């Protein structure tokens, strides 16, 4: 599998920046992922991310760390943080940026170690890919939590792409279909003439996340709501469960 994402990150880290990553989705959209943005510092991060980092505690696992900007900030603040990603190039970038603890693996294959905070930012819950896999994924994450531990994740409800906010009939006629959930999107990435394999990504509305959390004996609190259907949630094991 072509590590398009990792190649782009390494190019930027090594001073070979000449173009950005292009993404193409099943929503018939082309978008640009600016590489400098992936290397942002705390001051230039969105308020949602700043809030999430401020809520971190104890030993932290940064799942889907990318270029490692969140891990780097936490490490500089004295946290014991581990940056995890499936991209070899992303992990090499993290090492070059000075992140001490890294893991090149898929979170689904990871096991054994325990953490106080699991961090999944930049729509980190998206790695689930399919709504049907959400319950098993949350159950897997629970196995990494220390007593009193937490999961901090953000996502976006892309319902706005399917309804007209000003059209009440559009909203009333929209039906939730768990068998064909509107937040399941297929992406490909292109960078310097190379194209990634297609991959599934999940945009998850908060109510659906909350129901899944409850099914897995997790609390689910909305701790920050953005101005464009995005949100930050905190999940934790229910006491006595």
**CATH fold topology:** Rossmann fold
**For the largest beta sheet, what order do the strands appear in spatially?**
5-4-3-6-7-12-11
Structural class: alpha/beta
User: CATH homologous superfamily, by name?
Assistant: Vaccinia Virus protein VP39
**Beta strand %:** 25-35%
Quickly name the level 1 CATH class. Answer: Alpha Beta
Number of helices: 8
Q: What percent of residues adopt helix (DSSP H or I)? A: 25-40%
- From the N-terminal CA to the C-terminal CA, the straight-line distance is 40 Å
Number-wise, the strands total 12
Domain Methyltransferase type: 61-152
InterPro entries: Methyltransf_11 (IPR013216), SAM-dependent_MTases_sf (IPR029063)
Keywords: Methyltransferase, Transferase
Protein name: Methyltransferase domain-containing protein
Structural account:
This protein is α/β, with parallel strands linked by helices and 241 residues long. It has a single domain (4-237), classed as Rossmann fold, CATH 3.40.50. It is 27% helix and 29% strand. The protein contains 8 helices and 12 strands. The strands form 2 sheets. The protein has a 7-stranded mixed beta sheet with strand order 5-4-3-6-7-12-11, with helices on both faces. Strands 1, 2, 8, 9 and 10 form a 5-stranded antiparallel beta sheet that branches. Helix 1 runs parallel beside helix 5 (88-96). The longest helix is centred in the first third of the chain and has 10 residues, at 4-13. The protein starts with a helix and ends with a strand. The model is unreliable at 168-173 (pLDDT under 50). Keywords: Methyltransferase, Transferase. GO terms for molecular function: S-adenosylmethionine-dependent methyltransferase activity. It comes from Kriegella aquimaris. This is Methyltransferase domain-containing protein. InterPro entries: Methyltransf_11, SAM-dependent_MTases_sf.
